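Lab notebook, bench 4. The sequencing result for the construct came back, and we need a structural model before the next group meeting so we can plan mutations. Quick request posted to the team channel:

Model the 3D structure of this chain.
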Amino acid sequence: MYGPLDQGFWPDGLYTAPTDEALRYDIEVLKKLGCNMMRKHVKVEPARFYYWCDKLGLLVWQDMPNGSNDSDADKKQFELELMRLVHSHYNYPSIVMWVPYNEGWGQFKTEDFVKNIKRDDPTRLVNNASGWKDCGVGDVHDIHKYPGPKAPENEPNCAAVLGEFGGLGLPVKGHTWQAKENWGYRNLKTRQELTDAYLDLLKKLRPMIKGGLSAAVYTQTTDVEIEVNGFMTYDRAMIKMDAEKITEANKNLYPPANDVSTGGQEEAPLDIKLPRPQFEGTPQDRGVPFLQKPLGRPRPPFYAPVGTKNVALGKPVTSTDDEPVIGELEMVTDGDKEAADGSHVELGLFPQSVTIDLGARYNIYAILFWHYHKQAHIYYDVVVQVADDPDFFTNVRTLFNNDRDNSAGQGIGRDLHYTETHEGKLIDAKGVQARYVRLYSNGSNYDDYNHYIEVEVFGKPAG
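Done. Here's the predicted structure in token form:
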């Protein structure tokens, strides 16, 4: 999980949002920036806030507002209100974690309160203390580190989380609570400096996820009075960093594959050499159903363990069409990705497949292939599979399938059609182990023949 600390302050109402639309707006911005959670910091919001989190899909770590708890009366009131918070907010599915304490503020009877919360709400996680004094109970071990990042040591029965980090400050003239003496854990002077510093933090954070870090909380959603370390200014007038760049970095913290497939190995972006583009502009909608919308910008880097390389280069290729109409099967793995004449193999009509023998079992992290990117074709019934034997009887796994009517006989798929470009089609293989790779297709929206320029399989030898 990744998202910001959220104190829920407003310049015109302090703890009260001006409108219901304002409550919704903050949640929508966080979703657009690629966050999937927030930590609601020592504040309980009105019901509409949790309604919007439920409806829009943002996870919430719910803090208990903390006092000093110096007297017996203070402690009795804290316990009463803590359990009332749990009971009154039980039915909001967006709340996934209770946080009774922040940084030791008024902390007492931690073990008892965790036990009581678990007794009354066994469906949710409990964070016994966000930062400072961890009492070894509950579901997570939470540390704070500014600017950070840092991860706690892994424990067998607790998730490791970074409950606060970052806090990078930038006052924006005309959008601050006061003109001078504003504050951040580290102060920057320009929007570009702030963006670069944030991206550097996330670059350091990502390997920690592979080492076992389960969640991180950046400080914070908006500037709050003299604190100028928000994603947004206090008045919500602007996002202070380059939104496109930080969104890409945020989303890159949880790609669907690598978080669980690399075994904690150090990662780096794949060194993908792309061929020259053959056409410019955004491909037009050609009326093909279930067609993926073009990204509109270069594909973001794909991370894989250091040492991952193209293990298909020069490997033998077989096909359902052993006498291609044009070219030779070895062209599929010859390393030539250009769309020039003589660089592709053309197979016959109807569903056809090519199979690559990698020669040994590999941990496969990505498969990248080009059918024919000289024109913006859309190929049908594309299926990508791996297996342990050349006949695809043993341990067959399907990594991609956009065959909506089972024309290729490999089952009905739910993946989208896509338009050929010079970037090729990149399939996240999630570290699957296999020796053989097979790709199916069934013609395109241009004609009924099947084409391949190149197939690359990125992997490392299986241990």
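The chain is about 20% helix and 25% strand.
Will bring this to the meeting.
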